[in-house]
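mind reviewing this fold:
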Amino acid sequence: MHILIIEDDRELCDALRLQLLERNHTADCCFTGTDALYFALNGSYDLILLDRMLPEIDGLTVLRSLRKNHIAAPVILTTALGALDDRIDGLDCGADDYLVKPYAIEELLARIRALARRPQSFSDRHILAYMDIRLDPDTRVLSCNGQELQLSRRKAFLLEYFLRNPERTLTREQIFSRIWGIDGAVEGANLDTYVYFLRKHLRSLKSRVSITTVHGTGYRLEEKPDYVS
């Protein structure tokens, strides 16, 4: 899972990130409510670990804003406030789970596993499709017009992100955050290279789908404007 840790205790945040990385998750950290909204509203995370007491903007306000903006990623709210009313407030604001500090990492991991087992939408559990292309995220096989291509892990991950957001402009920052992580050491040219190869694959399959450059912003997956059936 790609997890966003929102926690103003930097030492705790770094420790959680390392524990998650050891369990084959990827994790990014941010430390204020303002940064939390910026990164979480990108919609690129599978789960959010949210501290209730944050500087600048408190966790409940962040949570309400995420749900108002249709960010459906599961949220585990963490706080030192363990009274019944506090837990009810958190759940009523849209939290999926509530964990009182201090907690054991084993309990957090169990909560994450429980949320990961929840039934997902049809598109999350099956083949991703748009126009004439289909991608199996598990096998990384791209198919179109009766032909198939095996994609590398990174290319499949990038195409999956496009397929989950068709006809929507994804900024370069959103893509970097989703594919490489907030702190990922990657040059801008790397993204352009991966997009170049995905375009090449789509052309080789004679697909009607293209990845359009939105100048100064990012990319968008859409039907070729000059496509003729």
